[in-house]
Design goal:
Elements: E1 2-15, E2 19-31, E3 35-37, E4 43-45, H1 52-68, H2 72-91, E5 97-102, H3 106-118, E6 133-138, H4 140-173
Length: 192
């Protein structure tokens, strides 16, 4: 839904003898919006004049109204508006954003590309970008909570496996001693 009018009003209320004076109400006029596809693989939801931040701000205002009113009718109206706003916020997807990754290690780059494709995303490069650069359009939350943690975990497993395999091959085929070069004290920086 796209909110055309969403604001709170204070007005004089006269409802019988027991309920007169100033009252606050929330006026909301909304229309259903459509989802459309863009040139790149992301879906966007047209919020019309209200952004996600504005929607969150509106929720805070309705919560404040709900807490400050003492009228049962106003509390019920504010509670209903709050529930509708929360439902809209939960249903509204975050916009996909373009992310740039530079992965110089060929094994890790292949792993990352495979993960991106497994999740149904399309990696790409712009003209004249290095082959180590990977561009992906996705939601920040998906990157932070799913893709990147999965990549880090599998990357560590791949690193450990390749390190173990490399050490095994070198120790069997070249030489058993795989220790680092010894540092000899007293030689200094002079080369003769």
């Amino acid at each position: 839904m796209s909110y055309l009018i969403a604001h709170e009003l204070e007005r004089d209320v006269t409802e019988g003898t027991g309920h007169t004076g100033r009252g606050a109400v929330v006026q909301i006029l909304a229309r259903k919006v459509s989802i459309y596809r863009c040139g790149l693989p992301d879906q966007r939801l047209d919020f019309g004049p209200m952004t996600r931040d504005e929607l969150i701000d509106k929720i805070h205002k309705v919560e404040a109204l709900f807490k400050s009113t003492h009228s049962q009718g106003e509390m019920q109206a504010a509670r209903g508006a709050l529930e509708r706003l929360h439902a809209q916020l939960a249903a509204a997807p975050q916009l996909a954003v373009e992310f740039k990754f530079s992965l110089t290690d060929p094994w890790k780059r292949q792993l990352f590309l495979a993960l991106v494709r497994r999740h149904g995303l399309q990696p790409y490069r712009r003209p004249r970008q290095r082959y180590t650069t990977i561009m992906v359009r996705l939601q920040r939350k998906f990157l932070d909570e799913i893709l990147w943690p999965e990549y880090l975990q599998l990357s560590q497993l791949l690193h450990d496996y390749l390190d173990e395999a490399t050490r095994d091959v070198i120790s069997r085929a070249v030489h058993r001693d795989l220790s680092e070069a010894a540092e000899i004290p007293g030689l200094g920086d002079a080369m003769e």
